[in-house]
Amino acid sequence: MGLKQGQNLIFLIIAGLLAAAAGISLGTQIRWIAWLVVVVVDAYLIAVLPLAARRAGDRGFATRHAWIRYLFPGRATGVFFLLLTLAASVMGFAGLYVGADVFPCNKGWLDATYISLLTLGFSDFGPKAGYGQRVVIFQLASGVLLLIGAFPLLISRISTFADM
Q1: Can you give the pLDDT at residue 1?
Q2: Which of 15, 26, 110, 156 counts the most CB atoms within 10 A of its CB?
């Protein structure tokens, strides 16, 4: 196995572990695990976005700073990495909803996942004041970060057909 293949495998393992941890937090209602997953996903995106912009704007940046290649998955791996990261984020926030006092009536794991993925912001469900509002605001900010960060990054990698 080459260095790049090993690196891609590490990306998939980490993303898979994050998604599994989010699923565990959803099933067990252990909110600190859900918070950990959400913070790790967002921290990665916040760290990678400026570097991706810098790398795209300055072609020599990647050659002058060879360490940067270790922060980005390969082209094919990026698709699976993005899906696992999205699953980790959605299930992480669902883990924050289930069993918590976020919505007027308590939700099960399936309801929490549905709310986290599909209905947040469409006023189907309104959070309670306090903790519920803070979680929803954090999820909206996290979702925007995922939309402006991960998806364009992945699309640019696929469209340029560059594995680096």
Answers
A1: 54
A2: 26
Taking residue 91's Cβ as centre, other Cβ atoms within 10 Å add up to 29
Give the total residue count for the chain.
164
- Mention every residue, 6+ apart, whose C-beta is less than 8 A from residue 86: 146, 150
pLDDT in tens, 25-70: 888 888 899 999 999 999 988 888 777 777 766 777 767 877 777 7
Torsion of CA 58, 63, 67, 72, to 10 degrees: 60
* pTM across the whole model: 0.76
- SS3 per-residue string spanning 145-163: HHHHHHHHHHHHHHHHCCC
**Beta-carbon count within 10 A of 95 CB:** 31
61 secondary structure, DSSP code: H
Q: What tokens were used for 142?
A: 């996290």
Find the helix packing angle between 31-57 and 75-97, rounded to 10°.
150
Determine contact, residues 81/104, Cβ cutoff 8 Å.
no
pLDDT in tens, 64-94: 877 777 777 777 777 788 888 888 988 888 8
For residues 85 and 95, what is the distance between their CA atoms, to the nearest angstrom? 15
